[in-house]
Specification:
Layout (H helix, E strand, L loop, with lengths): L2 H25 L6 H8 L3 H13 L3 E3 L3 E2 L5 E2 L2 E3 L4 E9 L2 E8 L4 E8 L7 H16 L8 E9 L2 E2 L6 E3 L17 E2 L2 E2 L2 E5 H12 L5 E6 L3 E7 L2 E2 L31 H4 L1 H8 L4 H9 L3 H25 L3 E5 H5 L1 H15 L3 H4 L2 E4 L6 H9 L2 H5 L1 H9 L2
Parallel strand pairs: 5-8, 8-13, 14-17, 17-18
Antiparallel strand pairs: 1-4, 2-3, 5-6, 6-7, 9-10, 11-12, 14-15, 15-16
Helix pairs in contact: 1-3, 2-3, 5-13, 7-9, 9-11
The structure holds zinc ion (ZN).
Family: Belongs to the ROK (NagC/XylR) family.
Length: about 400
């Protein structure tokens, strides 16, 4: 091995270790010390200390007030630093455009949004409007030291692997569009690259941030039914990034025609449009009201949706061995009525239900969840390669 090889190996070990240490701080921001990290990663305290010092100088991590640690020893809690490295989390949906600025702590620092009929716009018009919103959202953050790690656009559709081209987006009609090619944006003199990502995957990233390391199936009722799988705190995206299409799992081969072209998908029973039609209600608010007042047609429609959800979820849980289900969107809102029949179906269908138990929880309503998750996705480069981000400051 030449000296140069040894040097490269050393620097790649340092890069990998910086990422490991930062990963521990992401998972326990504000409540982890150097000693905790050393213990968790099996590293020496002095190695961890040096790495943490670099992350602090590099402005990714900050130290809190000293507190009494284990056995009374003083400990300095470490947390992610807000406001030094930020990202743009963007969202395009059928009825609105959103730009958020998200910091490393996962906090949304500013939001600019416009309610608009996106379907009536061309992708180019929408992307121009989005860039104006991004500029507005960034205006408050324009300090000289601020760095933008990137921009991710959450959209309701399937994308190619590189996050460039939209393959399917029936609700938007953006098939074949390339949002990154329609995006030209600079900040503090530097070009900010854009990637596109599936909106449900983005919202799942937000849910994962709230439960680091968690394993769960996230199912959310939107225009359709979206879902995503988290295993040990990582999004399971599949071979091409297309995993999690629970909404198009068949629950009735003789069922109604779905927007995807198949019959009897879960979406055709539990998706908002179909559910409202079955219940004979004009809006989700009206449906909730009708359910609360015991309207038999509404309750029957919800029960049918719950049983169908149980069929699809039962298959998914049998395949995945995940025992927590998080319901969002209208499925979360309807949980009080869904949970009984859904629990019955899962209890019968999931092989191991009697041995592990299945938790069905609701995820609180948060209209910015996709945009925020897009912002988190735009930080993944910082978290996987902190060495590159801190280098200019550490070497100063
Ligand atoms: Zn379908």
């Amino acid at each position: 091995m030449t000296t140069q090889d040894a040097g490269m190996t050393q620097s790649s070990v340092r890069s990998a270790n910086l990422a490991l240490v930062l990963g521990r701080i992401v998972a326990n921001s504000g409540s982890i010390s150097r000693a905790d990290i050393a213990h968790q990663l099996g590293m020496t305290r002095s190695t961890v200390s040096r790495l943490v010092d670099d992350l602090v100088i590099g402005q990714l991590v900050e130290e809190g007030e000293t507190v009494a640690g284990a056995r009374g020893r003083p400990a300095v809690p470490l947390g992610l630093r807000g406001g030094t490295v930020i990202s743009l989390g963007l969202e395009v949906n059928v009825e609105r455009l959103v730009a958020t600025v998200v910091d490393l702590r996962g906090e949304v620092r500013s939001v600019a949004q416009r309610d608009v009929d996106v379907v009536a716009m061309t992708p180019a018009e929408a992307m121009t409007a989005l860039a104006a919103l991004a500029e507005e959202a960034l205006r408050e953050e324009a300090g000289e030291d601020v760095r933008v790690s990137g921009a991710v656009l959450a959209l309701p559709g399937l994308l190619d692997r590189d996050g460039r081209r939209v393959l399917r987006a029936p609700n938007l009609g953006w098939e074949g569009a390339e949002p990154p090619a329609l995006w030209d944006f600079t900040f503090n003199g530097g070009r900010i690259d854009l990637h596109a990502a599936n909106d449900i995957d983005c919202s799942a990233l937000t849910v994962i941030r709230e439960d680091p390391g968690g394993s769960f199936l996230y199912v959310t009722g939107e225009v359709g039914i979206g879902s995503a799988v988290a295993l040990d705190g990582r999004l399971m995206t599949g071979r091409h990034g297309w995993a999690g299409e629970l909404g198009h799992v068949c629950v009735d081969p003789d069922g109604a025609l779905c927007g995807c072209g198949a019959n009897g998908c879960l979406e055709t029973v539990a998706g908002a449009r179909f559910l409202l039609a079955a219940a004979g209600q004009p809006t989700m608010d009206a449906l909730v009201e009708a359910a609360a007042s015991g309207d038999p047609r509404t309750l029957a429609a919800i029960e049918h949706a719950a049983r169908s959800l149980g069929i699809a979820l039962g298959a998914a849980l049998n395949l995945l061995d995940v025992s927590t289900v998080r319901l969002g969107g209208h499925l979360g809102v309807l949980e009080p009525w869904l949970s009984g029949p859904l629990g019955d179906e899962l209890g019968v269908r999931v092989m191991w239900a009697r041995h592990s138990g299945i938790e069905v929880e609701t995820v609180s309503e948060a209209p910015l969840r996709s945009a925020k998750g897009a912002g988190l996705a735009a930080q993944s480069g910082v978290l996987t390669d902190p060495a590159g981000w801190i280098a200019p400051l550490v070497e100063r």
